[in-house]
Design a protein that fits this description.
The complex is a heterotrimer of chains A (489), B (307) and C (416).
Chain A (H helix, E strand, L loop, with lengths): L5 H9 L4 H26 L5 H26 L8 H19 L8 H24 L7 H21 L27 H20 L1 H11 L1 H6 L4 H27 L9 H14 L4 H17 L6 E2 H23 L4 E2 L2 E2 L1 H22 L5 H19 L5 H30 L1 H7 L3 E2 L1 H19 L12 H8 L10
Antiparallel strand pairs in A: 1-4, 2-3
Chain B lengths: L7 H29 L6 H19 L7 H28 L7 H23 L17 E4 L2 E4 H23 L1 H11 L1 H6 L4 H27 L9 H14 L4 H20 L6 H15 L13
Antiparallel strand pairs in B: 1-2
Helix pairs in contact in B: 1-5, 1-8, 1-9, 1-10, 2-3, 2-8, 2-9, 3-8, 5-6, 5-8, 6-8, 9-10, 9-11, 10-11
Chain C lengths: L1 H7 L3 H15 L35 E7 L6 H20 L8 E7 L4 H14 L4 E3 L4 H14 L3 E3 L6 H4 L4 E3 L4 H15 L4 E7 L3 H17 L2 E8 L7 H9 L4 E4 L3 H13 L6 E3 L7 H6 L7 E4 L8 H14 L6 H19 L5 H9 L5 E2 L2 E2 L12 E7 L2 E8 L7
Helix pairs in contact in C: 3-13, 4-5, 7-8, 13-14
Classes of the chains: A mainly alpha (489), B mainly alpha (307), C alpha/beta (416).
Chain lengths: 489, 307, 416
Amino acid sequence: MAATPAPVASVLDSAKFHAGRFWTARFSSFAVVGLALYAFHNFVTPNLGIYDVRLIVLAFLFGTLAVSLNLINGITGQFSIGHAAFYLIGAITAGKLTVTFYKTGIVQMPGTLWLLVMVFAGAAAAAVAGLIVGLPSLRLRGDYLAVATLGFGEIVNVIQRNQDGGKQSIAGLDLGGAYGLQGVPKLTEIWFVLLLFIVTVALTRNLITCAHGLSFLAVREDELAADATGVNATRTKVTAFILGAAIAGMAGALYAHYNGSVPPDDFKMDTSFILVAMVVIGGTGSITGAAAAGITLKLLEEGLRKVPAIPAIDLYALILLAIAAFAGYRALARRRKLNLDGKLRPIWVTLGSILCVFVVWLGYKNYGSDLSWVLKVAAWVFMALLLACILSTSSRVAYLARFGFFGFCLALIVLAKPLVAGPLRGIEPVVELVGQTTYRAADLRWAIFSLALVFVMIIRPQGVFGHHEFSWTFVKRFFAGRVGEGASA
Amino acid sequence: MGFDWEQLPQQLVNGVQQGAVYALIALGYTMVYGVLRLINFAHGDIYMVGAYLAYYTSMVWFSRDAMNPYLLLALMLLFAMAGCALLGVLIERFAYRPLRNAPRISVLITAVGISLFLEYAGRLVVQTSPQPAIVQDVNVWSKPMHIGGITVQQSQLAMLIVTLVLMTLLWAFVRRTSMGRAMRAVSHDFSTAALMGVNVDRVVIVTFIIGSGLAGAGGMMSATAFGTPLNTFYGLLPGVKAFVAAVLGGIGNIPGAVVGGLIMGLAEVLVIWAGYAGYRDAVAFVILIVILLFRPGGLFGSTVDKV
Amino acid sequence: MNTRRLLSSGGAAASLISATILVLATGCNSGGSGGPGNNITPSAAGRVMPDKEGNVATGDTIKIGLIASLTGELQPWGEDSKRGVELAVEEFNKAGGLDGKPVQLLVEDSASKPESGKSATQKLIGEDQVVAVLGEVSSGITIQAADVCQETGVPLVAVGATRVDLTQKGAAVFRACFTDNFQGAAMAKFAYEDLGLRNVAVLTDKKQPYSVGLSDVFKKAFESFGGKIATEEFYEQGNIDFKAQLTNIKSVSPDGLFCSGYFNEVGPIARQRESIGLNVPMIGGDGWDSTQLIASGGTGILGGYFLNHYHNSDQRQEVQDFVTKFQAKYKQPPATAMGALGYDAALIVLDALKRAESLNSRALMNAIQSTKGLKGVSGDLSIGEDGNAQKPAHVLKVEKDGFTHHKQIPFFVFKE
């Protein structure tokens, strides 16, 4: 089991089980999902404030979007940076149809059923768009495809902006223009969003572990070889685009009916970039990674509201100290104080890991008290996962230890800050230039985020999870004490 | 809205003036891509930095009124080009060089990251001053010229001339000097050039200096000629459009970049003239997709790139 | 292996079965059947009351919320509005608060984006339990906040958002500034009667809902007065070159140019129109309000007229007092009209607090609706039936050293 890579192993396994067990397993899992969602809807949802609802809905929608983008970027190895366009197309189609047919009473049916129909309508429209974008991928590679998808995203935005029923719209089509489509009935409920997320993850997971899905992975690894072995690379790539787009369209439809309107500002280029960043940081090719990154980063966006503003001078002092710390780290590494034959010394691993958890906990203690309970739960889950990763002895922890070391330096820096900030305040030109400005966490968020993106690409281009998943086999192996190098399932 | 043929000549002139901006940025893009096969997404933001440097030079660091306007212009150009060249070198050294052997997708994402960083961190830095960042008219360029019923802005005409001059200089540099030959060698085949004794690192540095310097010059002239209030997203869209222009002309081809830029400007203006101003931004991308599908080598290029 | 099957399976088709079960089980008692169940339909007679009751002020302080763009493109306005609101609240508390109870102002950043504005509003209402919300400056963001407020029953007083449909959303939404309906019509009236223009060209920012709405009203009003719209051209926020559109406009020889966009583009438009020889008076709306306009417009913008809510040099006592107080607290006068409008929006809420029968959102809402004769910095803040403050507009002229007050246009209602 340890030797064969995961997808092949599962395909081999599939020959082993009986029809009876198969269907029992399948039905019981639906029942579990169904019951869980039903329970959630009846017991948890009524107790949620509107802000909590928003956090959950957005986090899981973005998790879904990240997984759908991962299907195109990570699993099939294409490069699409215009994903927000599919999200927008789904939202607009569903919204417009609802406003035209449902709201006016032309079609009479239960709200949730109509929403289901709209979700598929959104998926269909986005799928068509996915086809349009996917076809050129036959002739375009890498960078060019990326820019082409970016261009497509922009074109969709421009077209939507101009459809306001006025002079410049096509046949008087009114999609709300720059203001956005208004007045969409709010049919979405939380359980629907959760269901979509579960379906997406399950679908993608099953896709890559079954025989059909192997072709996606094959195209990613080596297109020429895949073609030579009989995989229709073209069809695979286009399928990936269509699927990824369709899922994004579904998410869009749900968003339109949650928000009550479709403001075009929510679907611009930045959204596409954020999604790419989520996939990249989480791990291209890893469903868990993409989903986790999607949910985490979205929650972080809101969580940062709480962090108090920091005076500019303090910030610059911190930056200077950080540069010094980084230089120190490099010097130590070069002198082999940190490594031993390429692996991080155990002492640093332990220390770094502990410090990592400590820093996160410190942050939670200081800023987390007034957080919405959703964010608190998320923070605890994050810390628990960190702890779980650390207690295993996989070499992946080495990276965690490095972050721990940085965390330690961060703590030191914060303590040492007054030492540098004091003299800085004394330098006249600096004070004049920057003076009284304070930066809020929200301002810094983007700057830090983009820097983190660059950092990740340089240090660990495959993202946090790489091609691996955080799966149950991993957990099982961990408990059995048999976690080896590159554990995957 | 019918076509107003009388206005066509003026609109053509407008288009060329608009295109000059794209042409200048495209020059830098095409150079970097030609040598490194890297779409430097941050290029548009370097253009933005050039504009800001021009602003700071003319409005903040030196006393405008006491200076000879020609001297001020020269200073602005100098600061913009030098500052941007330095920035380009720094970006290359810290962000692109570690990824020299990485898959292209990683480098592209890094470029996007740098672009976002320049925009948002830059916003943090410039947001501190409440004064709007506008480069006031430098007296030399403000009067428009009227030639037979058509109005030509002096500043934009100057920009076009400077673009053409720079293009010629660049072309001569690449064709005639040994460094230029080294650049062409690297653009043909990276590793073989290294094997032949070309100092690849130095070639890359020079490429970035020239490319970023050109972007800086573009930023400075654009800020001066148009006089719009600057913001850190000033370069995002022009950067991408300039990339399209470079592809249109044939990526890696120097005159092609300029021609591509001019065509882009013309196309946009003609769309507006036809009454569909709202679709103006889409024009660039439609051109991109059409070109990539039917003639990926661009108008002048071939699949074997020439720098 | 069973464990893995159980937990990792669940294909798409199968989950559809779950979905259908859930739909049938819960679809009947949630979401309702087809028809306009949960949307607000504006009615001619009155505005729709929200279903929910909103929040109750408990504890030692009365919490009100403010959403403002403290980051992003709208930061100058957002920052200004925040200062105005803070000044008003501080004054109120110094004067003893509400029978000794101070008002606590909670500020959330809407980051110049509708989505963030919505999150900010939901956080203030859901988490912080504010009884009223103030903000915002941009119509695109305010509509999202209005959506939340109408749904939860917490009153919203918009600071600078002028689109007409905002207060139509429901009875929980109010406004401290005038609407585009009034603004467009007032400017049309001024152009027709005072400037004697008959054939005006319109230049609209297609990317800004504010601009599109304002141009729309202006066109209708101007034509109803008897004027003609020569042509309408479009551009987008962020463009730097407008010569193509201006050339198109020049070819139809208008006698005036109406620019409904924001000052960032109007400045260069003014410069460029002068350079191509389109020498006609320029007029515009409150989007011009910024000292940047003079810097970027150069000589081209001088002599232009625009409508604003307020101006610093107004000799009325309230204005002078306000400017003095503002200067004392922040070391500079209000940079834009949003300072005054923020102050006035806060005044509306604070005044209503005094008159409300009890300290909850519904009572506060009713009190705000019945605001009459409240003298604000930007004018009379009586709230009309449609939820808007019925204030006059000030026509300002652009001069080399700043804006000068040209004329005041009293409030009137424009019916199409």
